[in-house]
Write a structure and sequence with these properties.
Alpha-Beta Plaits; Ribosomal Protein S5, domain 2; binds (R)-mevalonate; lipid biosynthesis; transferase
Length: about 325
């Protein structure tokens, strides 16, 4: 039986969520241990999908899955395989709607799996262009950052409309990622910031400030300055909260983390729920903070040494 697989992984935004939509730079980190895999198997008839949301025919996918359905049809049309039967299985360890790029990761893994299955070459720009089909549908005005990071093995510096650059990280600090369990609402949050910008001049300053923080953070990542990095995270969180995209539970967990000696903490991704990230000096401390957050209700935590996120060059 002919099968092919495509993979991708979670992402976190270290600096630059929301401001990236308005042309400011963002720093995004791949989280390679949290994976999405798509397997396509040749079958005699039918085009079927099996995933955590839906099992059945491609043509019968519910409205919530229209983005994915649209993506699959676009790929099949471009590869001139509209009528080819297949069975697709999507498996993902990325929690959905938590700002960890689960929708983009699914798109990336699906595209890779199909191109692999049909033995067609796939360039990186083609991969990102196709991922944008479902991301546009799901988010309305995506910066492209999620697709760029869930398909990259390296930390990236992302400016909307430009080719992502990989960046060096020289840091011994650790990150704790914690899931509040509350669904993040990226589409809503992006719209909220847009409305805010139309009404409040302070919002524009906050966006610029977020971009400045990303620029400074890039320098701190390269020279190992974890303390300043922590301050920049706290300041970023203040500005994101000012824009209205934090959440009371995120605020509560951030306070807990900082009271437990973290260097900095902020929401990650679209916000209004979802995940937060916490910067700490070492692994022991990371474990301690992860435990504190779990004891207070965080549904899942991951710890990640920043130095494991190596630069390509
Ligand atoms: C979502 O992960 C990040 C946002 O900046 C939206 C986007 O970049 O498309 C909130």
């Amino acid at each position: 039986l002919k099968t092919a697989m495509g993979q991708s992984h979670a992402k976190i935004i270290f600096f630059g969520e929301h401001s990236v939509v308005y042309g400011q730079p963002a720093i995004c980190l791949p989280v390679s241990k949290i994976k999405t895999s798509v397997t396509i198997t040749a079958v005699n008839t039918g085009q079927t999908i099996q995933s955590r949301y839906f099992t059945g025919k491609l043509s019968a996918m519910p409205d919530s899955q229209t983005g994915i359905q649209l993506l699959i049809r676009t790929i099949l049309t471009e590869l001139k395989q509209e009528a080819t039967p297949f069975a697709m299985q999507i498996e993902s360890a990325i929690p959905a709607e938590r700002g960890m790029g689960s929708s983009a990761a699914t798109a990336i893994a699906i595209i890779r799996a199909f191109f692999h299955f049909f033995e067609e070459p796939l360039s990186h720009s083609e991969l990102l262009r196709l991922a944008d089909v479902s991301e546009q549908y799901i988010h309305g005005n995506p910066s492209g950052l999620d697709a760029a990071t869930t398909s990259s093995r390296f930390p990236i510096w992302f400016v909307r409309g430009r080719r992502p650059q990989t960046i060096p990280i020289k840091q011994n600090a650790f990150l704790v990622i914690a899931d509040t369990g509350i669904l993040g609402q990226t589409g809503l949050a992006v719209q909220y910031v847009k409305n805010r910008l139309a009404q409040d001049p302070q919002a524009e300053l906050a966006i610029e400030h977020l971009g400045q923080n990303a620029k400074q953070a890039r320098i701190c990542l390269a020279n190992g300055d974890a303390n300043t990095l922590g301050h920049l995270m706290n300041d970023t969180q203040k500005n994101l909260a000012m824009l209205g995209v934090s959440h009371p539970l995120i605020d509560q967990y951030i306070k807990l983390a900082l009271d437990s000696g973290a260097l900095g903490a902020k929401l990650t991704g679209g916000g209004m729920g979802g995940c937060l990230i916490v910067l700490v000096n070492n692994q022991t401390h990371a474990q301690k903070i992860a435990t504190v957050l779990q004891q207070n209700g965080a549904v899942q935590t991951w710890t990640e040494p920043l130095r494991s996120l190596k630069h390509k060059g």
